[in-house]
Amino acid sequence: MASTALATVRPPRKKRGAVNADRASLAPTPREIAQIARECRKLVTRRALVAAGASIVPLPGVDVAVDISVLMRMIEQVNERFGLTPEQLEQLAPQRRLFAYKAALGVGSALVGRMVTRELAIKLLKTVGMRLSAKQAAKYVPFAGQAIAASISFAALKRLGDRHVEDCVRVAQTLSELRDDDVVASY
Length: 187
Fold this sequence. Notes:
Layout: H1 2-9, H2 30-55, H3 62-82, H4 86-90, H5 94-106, H6 118-127, H7 129-138, H8 144-177, H9 180-186
Helix pairs in contact: 2-3, 2-8, 3-6, 3-8, 5-8, 7-8
């Protein structure tokens, strides 16, 4: 009973590496951006390893389902760490929010500031479709085929994740370089 009372009194813990919610109107500093990028690259590698591990399972379709769910969660986590989820962007001042969306479009990212749906994840995986087709075919070769499928899965998710981290870095850098008088003047 006492632990329940303590839980309601304690303030919620801040997520490590995430942009401070109290500073929602302020962009992260270049040092914070670099730190978040390092943490996100590690996250991408860990998630890609999970997907690779699922590719070892010889059941058809399991690896694709895992790839999709891992990719969706990974993109959401990277966006969250950079303060670029749709919810976080909605907390920004209207002018700054507009610049955030323009910056995302400027880097050509379809994932920064957007809700990641299953359909979007499938579309992304289709961009590396040749590899995924080879992965499915390789699974029919005993042992070596499963190793090949795992390495293809790892490479595909690592590439997509790293590219997304770089897109988030560019958007975050654009927002950190943006001064409030720039926002007002161009609005």
